[in-house]
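Whiteboard transcription, Tuesday session. T.W. wrote the structure tokens on the left side:
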């Protein structure tokens, strides 16, 4: 899901994704992790193309069942920096049954 807002000259896009994948460490042996690790930077790239504006602030809300390990947060930050994307905020939202 995606929603755009504009306040003055500043634009924001809010993207919401729900996933069960909370571990992005490829050493865990799960081959699907490579897909997830490329999906988030790829989504950012597509949003930039769609908006045609490198200055738009993207807020990526990822809904997960448990808190991701610190290693996952480090990996995600490293992947996004390596992709050259700026003005991106990733927020993990924990949706628990309790």
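and on the right, the sequence the group agreed on:
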């Amino acid at each position: 899901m995606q929603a755009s807002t504009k306040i003055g000259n500043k634009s924001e896009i809010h993207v919401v994704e729900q996933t069960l994948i909370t571990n992005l460490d490829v050493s865990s042996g799960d081959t699907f992790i490579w897909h997830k690790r490329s999906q988030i930077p790829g989504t950012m790239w597509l949003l930039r193309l769609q908006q045609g504006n490198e200055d738009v602030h993207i807020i990526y809300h990822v809904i997960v069942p448990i808190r991701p390990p610190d290693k996952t947060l480090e990996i995600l930050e490293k992947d996004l920096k390596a992709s050259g994307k700026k003005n991106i905020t990733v927020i993990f939202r924990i949706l628990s049954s309790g």
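Someone added at the bottom: Residues 2-94 form one domain.
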